[in-house]
Amino acid sequence: MSDRILPALNEAISLDLGVSLEWKLELDADDPDGQTLSLLYPSVFLERATYLRRAVKIEMGARSDTEPAESIEIRPYVSDAFPNLLHTSRHTTLQQQALVRLAGAKPR
Q1: Phi-psi region of 45 (alpha: psi -120 to 50; beta: other; left: phi over 0)
Q2: How far apart, in whole angstroms, are the C-alpha atoms of residue 41 and residue 58?
Q3: Average pLDDT of every residue of the chain
Q4: Where are the chain's structural domains?
Q5: pTM, 2 dp
Q6: Which of the residue ranges 11-20, 43-52, 70-79, 84-93 would you say has the lowest mean pLDDT?
């Protein structure tokens, strides 16, 4: 990681952010395996927020591609209230919200 990826990312980020902005890319000290990078980036705000870190973790490694390994069914809560309304998982959340509003707006 530190031999190839870190220098390549440093170069790519420096092309975008330049050298005048306050940023830093380094190995994450909290990762004993050395498979995580920390990108400390510049803020657009004049005052620094105490509750927000100006950092992004970039986690990489052999296990990152295989987890989660369990296949689960995702079912929206609205299907309990309206079992005949949603027939497939093709509907997006926005579509589901619109369908629920339409169902609630129909006269009974």
Answers
A1: beta
A2: 13
A3: 78
A4: 5-62, 75-108
A5: 0.51
A6: 84-93
